[in-house]
Automatic annotation (TrEMBL):
Species the sequence originates in: Paenibacillus phytorum
SMART domains in UniProt: Alpha-mann_mid
InterPro entries xrefs: Gal_mutarotase_sf_dom, GH38_beta-1, GH38_C, Glyco_hydro/deAcase_b/a-brl, Glyco_hydro_38_C, Glyco_hydro_38_cen, Glyco_hydro_38_cen_sf, Glyco_hydro_38_N
Protein name in the entry: Alpha-mannosidase
Record-linked Pfam families: Alpha-mann_mid, Glyco_hydro38C2, Glyco_hydro_38, Glyco_hydro_38C, Glyco_hydro_38N
The UniProt record lists the keyword Cell wall biogenesis/degradation: no
Amino acid sequence: MSTKRTAHIISHTHWDREWYLPYEKHHVRLVKLVDTLLDKMDLDPNYRSFFLDGQTIILEDYLQVRPDQKDRLTKFIQDGRILIGPWYILQDAFLTSGEANVRNMQIGHQDAKKYGDVSKIGYFPDTFGLVGQTPQLMQQSGITNALFGRGVKPTGFNNTVSDGDYESSFSELLWEGPDGSQVLGILFANWYSNGNEIPVDREEAKAYWERKLADAEKYASTGELLFMNGCDHQPVQLDLPEAIQAARELYPDTNFVHSNFIDYLQAVQRSLKHELSTVKGELRSQRTDGWSTLVNTASARVYLKQMNQLGQAMLEKVAEPLAAFAHVLEVGEKYPHHLFTYAWKTLMQNHPHDSICGCSVDEVHREMVTRFEKSRHVAESIVDDSKRAIAEVIDTSSFAQAGEGALPVVVFNTSGWERTGVVSIELDALRLYFRDGYTLEEASSFAKAADLSGRTLVDAMGNDVACTFEDLGLQFGYDLPDDKFRQPYMCRRVKLTFEAEKVPALGLKTYAWVKRDEEIVDSSLLVGDRVLENESLKIEIADNGSFTLTDKKNGRTYRDLGVYENTGDIGNEYMYKQPDGETPLTTNGLAAHIRVLKDTAYQAAIEIVHDWEIPGSADELLEEEQRDLIYYPHRKAQRSARMVPMQIRTIVSLSRGGKGVEIESSFNNQAKDHRLRMLFSSDLNSQVHRVDSMFEIPQRDNTPTAEWENPSNTQHQQAFIDVSEAEAGLVVANLGLNEYEVLRDGRNTIAVTLLRAVGELGDWGLFPTPEAQCLGEHTVRMTIIPYNGEGEQYGAYEQAYQFQIPWTLCQTGIHSGRIAPTYAPIRWEGEKMAFSSMKMNEGTGDLLLRWYNMSSQNTELKLNSNIPLYTFYKSTIMEVHGPSIEANAGGQVSLPTGPSEIVTIGIQR
């Protein structure tokens, strides 16, 4: 009898490391599961294959407890029975950076190769939506497929499916990225548990397969049907061989196979006869009713997103480029690959979709805070070592003539563009080491008596630089030399704040604090006590604390910026739900306390304080509805009549060279079950907007699709959102505020979520999460950047990206050196190109630099080196040596770059 169809049964477990249980409780269950799997494979050769959820961290977690099982585990991997990789962890796509996803793939491959072959499977079983650049990232990783459960209609859960108006004709589709890269997409249309717990009993199996085969055939384009034998934390089905044999006997016209993804994908490719639908760009479930997109995980536990933004920036945008800088200068600092791997792994352990999304129990997120701190501390240690090593080879000798007792300061710009901005450093004006015979009393007395008057800051040309000096007084400090015991000292410490101007991209600029008689004539950016103004911008503060921003380049004025909005939230960590009929509270009619906070030649700031009252929580009905497991869209709870104070302190600041206005908001949240946003009315005429995502700035519609029923249309962002029309645009950049909405209010108001406070996890049961109410102190930061219409937005994006990156400063001494006081090892130019990373390759020792084209047009990348390098070549995100790139007579290389292309260049010494 000829076989009409094949049932590919793939055994797996989807392993959320932490979620409704703390990590270690899931960890214990993981150890039991893998022990059981190894025993089963030892005893039963008919149990052919198991997919270890696409993440190699499972190997680490298991072997941490069972190191004695490594050889046994390795054997089954090398025999092809346990499939591992390609990722280190299964991450959330929209809340983790592009470079974090690249490191995830790189480290996953590195770890998998230690055991055997890497599974070239683009595995995204439960990712909460997928970014548009995924096909290009897969292709550059040598992966030609993507298997996913969310983002495209039809989708389902627990073997239920949507009906009608599908985005794809079949569960197999072509997924195309903005650069044109395509992969074969496999949608888990009946979820990744559609072959779970297969019965052995013939009567039960008959009913099971009657339903399951029909469900799979409903969407499949071929007779190769996929059945996922597993689910979240699913134990191994030990009687699966017997269940498969029972199915074979019941359905002799169907070939039941204990399969794996490699065999399944090959079978699908061989069998494709229908023309598949092509789905393009982001997969965000926009063709659904909007109630189950899980989008509001972008605002659950905002403090985690803020810590993640800083942690990612410190690794990829500060520590890696500085360590690479030090390495190529050959200043004795070897690139610390081992420390980077450890720091990245520690950070990425917070990147799974139930972790960074903030949708787990409280114990999980407490542990995440520690991991964020651990990773950042490693990054900071690398930065400290690298910056000091580089500073030692800067020629600072010219500062000896600039004034008495010169104290040089190095400003590092690790962004990809030339940068101007306000920086601060704590400087030791005098150090007295105990090793030199000083008693504590003597050292303290001398340090206190030091004369710090008559000093100013100068650049390498001897020009005065406006600077604010704050005496921090007597301080204790210590050195930790590499070759001797710790060296404690007492010092007189000062804080210098100034505007560092035109610091070269990926480079440095040196200043010195010197004793001079000249005084800098004070100037101000204040016009009265409520107006800030520089060459580019004018900001006017209104009585209610909102402000008007005028772009002096085109005369466009933006009004009613910085209004706060507060609403109730009776949803959960996954999804926001405003109480029915509620009118949002705003600060529009609330008089604010306004005063000048700072007035210097390089920066001015105004403080705005709102003394507000908001409801203290939801009413008592919410707790009852939670206990009764009422699906959150159907809840009827309202806000409590009890009011609590919420004082919000806002600092609006403008620097002399600033292209945007910076906002810092601080508040002590003592309310529950609510959402706080800041509103920026753009009054720009557009039906679409742009938003920063992974290696891409996609365009999204302001109005959702016809199927969308949720009144809220909040969405994910990373660094910024941009609303524009032909002659003007407004970019709102943020630090770790990943949720926004373009309101359908006739003004295209940009709403950025600052806080969302809820009391339960949500999903499949009742899991109280009191710490998700986020009670206590919070501080958020944003910058608002106007620009002059189409074609000018890339300059605004450059400013928004720089806002993400901390400045790095270092004190050094007077000494000769081999690099100039203003220096950069690399120079590049490329219209519409965004710089992404600079790091070293562990295997080859090559320098790797990455950019991406922010636009949908062709462009060109040009690159020069100021260090002795030999050859340039085009690489991939996996740092594979590709075609050589010839340099011209001046040492410059030029590389044509396609629309939305991610470009990696290797430099071989």
